[in-house]
């Protein structure tokens, strides 16, 4: 029995968790401090870039996706892909609505 | 699965590895539905923020950034203790599973406590959408009518997130009792692992909520 679990349970060293944890804390502090500097529209870009990086760290290491079978990886990527469809297709509508006049209005 | 930690291989699986991968896959499929669930609300937030950027920036500056940042740190700590609980389970350290699960529950409760304080402040300062909505010291050049939309989305998003935390706290209690009775071993601890995925997912939602809700434009009107 134990021989099976040796394959399916990847023991991640504690140091990896600590490293990811520290990176997440640093990311939070940087997000907070950068928001106090006025970068115009780049504020939101920086904040979201840091948030995506933090989420990626959590997914890869805390949620063990880095050590998961390919099928799990595919499911995770397809989920993110579908979210991007939701956001981008709605945005293409919202952002282009005013480009052309509406006949009759 | 009996209470002595031996694995029962269900007849429709080839081996334990496949059985465990099936659990993990099922959990991920559930989390995808959660991503789309929260995703719709994030989209609503983005759409209205684009339409009414000034009202959203002014309303966002009513939030307490320090409390929001504290909660982010608390939640990241709870993710670490949760990861350590799964780690202890994989090594078969039964006492440490209980310790880390209790730590996770404690940090989750701290998060909800801080959130309660924030909600309380919103009610006191008339910043809850409804008949009594009139934020104090509102900048004169900004339209107030769309600010309640922001607070509606704020309560919707953080409320949905908090309800996930409350459900998570209930499941944690269940896991703590089971772990204390020695139900989880190095060979079989799937519930701890699957709950870990859920808890980390809730953490990720907050990682996006913090900058989007609290830090829209701290320089607005200054």
Account of the 3D structure:
Chain A is 73% helix and 0% strand. Chain A has helices at residues 2-8, 14-35, 42-62, 70-96. Chain A is built from 4 helices and no strands. Mean pLDDT of chain A is 87; it is low at 1-8. Mean pLDDT of chain B is 92; it is low at 1-5. Helices cover 73% and strands 0% of the residues of chain B. Chain B is elongated, with a radius of gyration of 21 Å. Chain B has a single domain, classed as Four Helix Bundle (Hemerythrin (Met), subunit A). The chains are: A mainly alpha (105), B mainly alpha (222). The interface between A and B is large, with 52 and 54 residues.
What are the SSEs and their pairings?
The complex is a heterodimer of chains A (about 100) and B (about 220).
Chain A: H1 2-8, H2 14-35, H3 42-62, H4 70-96
Chain B: H1 16-51, H2 53-60, H3 65-91, H4 94-124, H5 147-180, H6 190-214
Helix pairs in contact in B: 1-2, 1-5, 1-6, 2-5, 3-4, 3-6, 4-5, 5-6
């Amino acid at each position: 029995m134990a021989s099976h679990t040796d394959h399916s349970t990847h023991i991640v060293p504690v140091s990896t968790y600590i490293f990811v944890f520290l990176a997440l804390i640093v990311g939070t502090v940087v997000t907070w401090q950068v928001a106090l500097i006025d970068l115009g529209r780049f504020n939101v870009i920086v904040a979201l870039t840091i948030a995506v990086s933090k989420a990626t760290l959590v997914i890869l290491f805390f949620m063990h996706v880095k050590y998961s079978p390919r099928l799990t990886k595919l499911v995770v990527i397809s989920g993110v892909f579908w979210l991007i469809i939701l956001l981008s297709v709605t945005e293409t509508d919202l952002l282009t609505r005013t480009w052309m006049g509406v006949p009759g209005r | 699965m009996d209470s002595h930690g031996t694995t029962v291989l269900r007849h429709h699986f080839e081996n334990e590895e496949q059985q465990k991968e099936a659990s993990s896959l099922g959990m991920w499929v559930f989390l995808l539905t959660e991503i789309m669930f929260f995703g719709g609300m994030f989209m609503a937030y983005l759409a209205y923020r684009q339409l009414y950027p000034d009202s959203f920036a002014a309303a966002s500056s009513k939030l307490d950034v320090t409390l929001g940042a504290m909660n982010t740190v608390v939640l990241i700590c709870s993710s670490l203790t949760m990861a350590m609980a799964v780690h202890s389970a994989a090594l078969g350290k039964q006492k440490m599973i209980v310790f880390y699960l209790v730590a996770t529950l404690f940090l989750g409760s701290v998060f909800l406590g801080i959130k309660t304080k924030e909600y309380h402040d919103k009610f006191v300062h008339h910043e809850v959408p409804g008949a009594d909505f009139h934020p104090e010291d509102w900048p004169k050049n900004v339209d107030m009518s769309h600010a309640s939309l922001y607070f509606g989305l704020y309560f919707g998003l953080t409320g949905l997130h908090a309800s996930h935390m409350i459900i998570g706290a209930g499941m944690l209690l269940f896991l703590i009792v089971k772990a204390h009775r020695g139900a989880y071993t190095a060979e079989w601890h799937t519930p701890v692992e699957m709950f870990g995925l859920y808890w980390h997912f809730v953490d990720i939602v907050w990682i996006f909520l913090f900058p989007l809700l609290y830090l829209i434009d701290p320089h607005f009107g200054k």
